């Protein structure tokens, strides 16, 4: 164990640079207030909560209800019941691990975004679980077929960890703990409601007909949650992830801080020398230095604009560095898909502030006519 990444003797320069550029540098600031109103009025939040509720419902089926079905209807002994109940754990681990690798490959190669990956994996869990459970209904008292389909149904729950279970972290990195706590608290209700419902339905009538009603109820709940999550859910970072005060402060720093500091782009990340090696330099007295495929831009005053790839998606990163160092003071990212909207917003803002400034205040390319 080491105190910080900087102290680790075997960390690579690229790893250290990535950690330092993406971590919070000013820990003295208070955590922004939780946007409760925005969270509880967010449709994606309710969609992911419903999806997680379905996953918890399936988990309760797996842990509490399925052993009862195996013992009472298929007449397995306690020892056989224990073995058959534990087998889905193995397949869940395999499916979860395989799904994670596939999701990372899809995102890293930019085949699909994080949002689609989460929805696809969650729907695949819902579809596989429901189809296998439907097979259990039609298999009736055929012990072998019913058991195999039950194990397969329970195994598909592992794909939910690549789907809805991790989505709250994608929706709001700042308030991920809050979202996970809220959604899991709501969803945990399923863990004690489902066994109670099963007890009520089978207490006086332990028949296949009653169990089939239970399985149909599970199928309806699971498929409806999967469809609802695909339509209304979202794994994109929500607008309320950033507080208004934080946004205002970042804008203020970008506009009114006169420190002419530059974030260098160099292969030797630990060197203290600063090199203005940018693909496009708009802060050097209006002179532009271009090269193939520009991906980092010096806007002057220590403000840097970069094109970066993260989790298979491209973002436009705006950052502010401290004087003489590579420490990032403020940073926020804009999805590449919103670059055109960023351009329109910048043009509209320039048109708005133009009457309030003279040609000495703003650069010539801002004051000049379009």
Automatic annotation (TrEMBL):
One of its GO terms (molecular function) is symporter activity. It comes from the Eukaryota. The chain crosses the membrane at residues 45-70, 82-105, 120-141, 148-169, 181-202, 214-235. Pfam families: MFS_1. GO terms for biological process: monoatomic anion transport. It is found in: Membrane. Keywords: Membrane, Symport, Transmembrane, Transmembrane helix, Transport. It is a multi-pass membrane protein. InterPro entries: MFS (IPR011701), MFS_Na/Anion_cotransporter (IPR050382), MFS_trans_sf (IPR036259). Signal peptide: none annotated. One of its GO terms (cellular component) is membrane. PANTHER family: FI19708P1-RELATED, SOLUTE CARRIER FAMILY 17. This is Putative inorganic phosphate cotransporter. It comes from Trichonephila inaurata madagascariensis.
């Amino acid at each position: 164990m080491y105190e910080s990444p900087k102290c680790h003797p075997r960390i690579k320069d690229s790893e250290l640079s990535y950690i330092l550029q993406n971590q919070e540098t000013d820990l003295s600031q208070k955590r922004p207030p939780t946007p409760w109103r925005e969270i509880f009025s967010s449709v994606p939040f309710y969609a992911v909560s419903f999806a997680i509720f379905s996953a918890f419902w399936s988990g309760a089926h797996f842990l509490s209800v399925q052993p009862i079905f195996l013992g009472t209807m298929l007449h397995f002994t306690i020892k056989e019941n224990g073995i058959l109940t534990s087998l889905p754990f193995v397949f869940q681990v395999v499916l979860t691990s395989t799904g994670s690798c596939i999701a990372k490959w899809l995102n890293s190669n930019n085949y699909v975004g994080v949002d689609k990956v989460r929805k696809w994996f969650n729907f695949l869990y819902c579809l596989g679980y429901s189809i296998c459970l439907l097979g259990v209904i039609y298999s009736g008292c055929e012990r072998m077929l019913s058991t195999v389909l039950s194990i397969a149904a329970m195994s598909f729950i592992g794909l939910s960890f690549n789907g809805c279970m991790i989505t709250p972290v994608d929706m709001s990195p700042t308030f991920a703990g809050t979202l996970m706590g809220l959604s899991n608290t709501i969803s945990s209700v399923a863990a004690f409601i489902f066994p109670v419902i099963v007890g009520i339905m089978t207490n006086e009538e332990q028949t296949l007909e009653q169990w089939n009603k239970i399985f149909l109820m599970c199928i309806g709940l699971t498929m409806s949650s999967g469809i609802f999550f695909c339509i209304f859910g979202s794994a994109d970072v929500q607008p309320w992830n950033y507080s208004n005060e934080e946004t205002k402060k970042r804008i203020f720093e970008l506009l009114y801080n006169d420190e002419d500091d530059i974030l260098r782009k160099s292969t030797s990340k630990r060197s203290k020398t600063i090199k203005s090696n940018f693909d496009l330099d708009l802060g050097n007295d209006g002179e532009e230095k271009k090269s193939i495929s520009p991906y980092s831009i010096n806007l002057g005053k220590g403000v840097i604009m970069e094109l970066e790839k993260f989790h298979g998606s491209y973002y436009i990163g705006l950052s502010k560095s401290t004087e003489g160092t590579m420490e990032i003071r403020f940073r926020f990212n804009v999805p590449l898909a919103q670059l055109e909207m960023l351009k329109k917003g910048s043009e509209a803002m320039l048109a708005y502030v133009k009457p309030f400034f003279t040609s000495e205040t703003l650069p010539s390319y801002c004051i000049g006519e379009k």
